[in-house]
């Protein structure tokens, strides 16, 4: 087996929770080599994981790293423990993302999970999948193909506890999407502390911390004019139903981070945000 340069950090999720933003900011740090493209989607694909040629292609993304002590990639679909019987996600028999990552990269790997209020995350994922052409029938959020994981990816408790059991809690860093807009410097410093990485002089000053990436408007430009004019609409009852299925996960993240997340459960505010102007970002 040839010796490969391997990633020693991965931003594993959560989908639509600022992973592209974080990947970009770390790519400007002199001690980090972040993959290009960002999402390699290797360990969530059982056919690739078992294929020596695909393995070589995956590790080739890190061959350009020189003396940087941190090599990383960011694939938000890694943070997904699929289970039998879930109506919102399909199971891949004989494959588990966390186990595949550990077996290939070792148990010392450090992983970052950025979590967003799960209702807004699901709404954003719904519009994202529509914008890239995966829901042309405009099916409701609960009726989309389970392979998209629109609802299932928001069950943070299940996914976190599984990764913590395959690795350990100390391998995982939980950060909150809220802080990207409210306290981006604090968010980045939390990640750097977890990784035991230095903060070079002037590093934060040279970043565009207010940049929005992969928002709905940008994605919708890919659609034809008729589709842009009439996107699907999220209904208040869908927001209420999402909040109910995610209540345990919201409590879990609050306990995990020691943060008050009452706004994640504010039904009126969520309805106003996602059903009044249908921003869906």
Structural commentary:
- With 281 residues, the chain is an alpha/beta fold.
- It has one domain (9-276): Rossmann fold (3-Layer(aba) Sandwich).
- 41% of the residues lie in helices and 9% in strands.
- It has twelve helices and five strands.
- The chain has helices spanning 19-27, 46-49, 52-60, 97-105, 118-131, 156-166, 178-182, 184-195, 216-220, 225-229, 236-257, 267-276, and strands at residues 9-13, 32-34, 70-74, 110-115, 172-176.
- The chain has a five-stranded parallel sheet with strand order 2-3-1-4-5, sandwiched between helices.
- The mean pLDDT is 92.
The secondary-structure class comes to alpha/beta
Spatial order of the strands forming the largest sheet = 2-3-1-4-5
Would you give the CATH topology? Rossmann fold
Give the low-pLDDT segments.
none
**Number of helical stretches of at least 4 residues:** 12
Work out the number of β strands. 5
Number of domains: 1
Second-tier CATH architecture? 3-Layer(aba) Sandwich
CATH superfamily annotation: P-loop containing nucleotide triphosphate hydrolases
Rounded to the nearest angstrom, the distance between the terminal CA atoms is 44 Å
> Mind summarizing the main beta sheet?
5 strands, parallel
**Per DSSP, what share of the residues sits in E-state strands of 2 or more residues?**
5-15%
What is the CATH C-level name? Alpha Beta
**Element order, helices and strands?**
EHEHHEHEHHEHHHHHH
- Average pLDDT number: 92
Question: What would you call the shape?
Answer: globular
Tell me the helix content: 40-55%
The radius of gyration is 19 Å
């Amino acid at each position: 087996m040839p010796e490969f340069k391997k990633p020693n950090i991965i931003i594993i999720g959560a989908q639509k929770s600022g992973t592209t933003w974080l990947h970009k900011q770390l790519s400007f740090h002199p001690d980090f080599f972040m993959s290009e493209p960002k999402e390699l989607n290797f360990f969530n694909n059982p056919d690739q994981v078992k294929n020596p040629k695909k393995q070589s292609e995956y590790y080739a993304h890190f061959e350009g790293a020189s003396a940087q002590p941190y090599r990383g990639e960011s694939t938000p679909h890694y943070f997904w423990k699929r289970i039998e019987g879930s109506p919102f996600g399909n199971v891949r028999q004989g494959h588990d993302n966390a186990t595949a990552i550990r077996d290939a990269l070792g148990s010392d790997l450090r992983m970052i999970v950025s979590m967003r209020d799960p209702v807004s995350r699901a709404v954003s994922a719904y519009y994202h999948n529509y914008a890239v052409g995966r829901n042309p029938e405009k099916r409701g959020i609960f009726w989309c193909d389970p392979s998209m994981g629109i609802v299932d990816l928001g069950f943070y408790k299940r996914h976190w506890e599984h990764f913590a059991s395959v690795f350990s809690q100390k391998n995982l860093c939980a950060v909150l999407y809220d802080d990207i807009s409210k306290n981006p410097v604090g968010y980045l410093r939390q990640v750097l502390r977890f990784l035991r990485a230095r903060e070079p002089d002037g590093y934060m000053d040279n970043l565009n911390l207010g940049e929005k990436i992969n928002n709905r408007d940008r994605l919708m430009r890919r659609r034809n004019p008729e589709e842009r004019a009439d996107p699907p609409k999220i209904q208040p009852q869908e927001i209420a139903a999402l909040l109910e299925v995610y209540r345990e996960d919201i409590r879990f993240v609050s306990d995990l981070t020691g943060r008050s997340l009452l706004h994640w459960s504010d039904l009126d505010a969520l309805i106003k945000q996602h059903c009044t102007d249908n921003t869906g970002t």
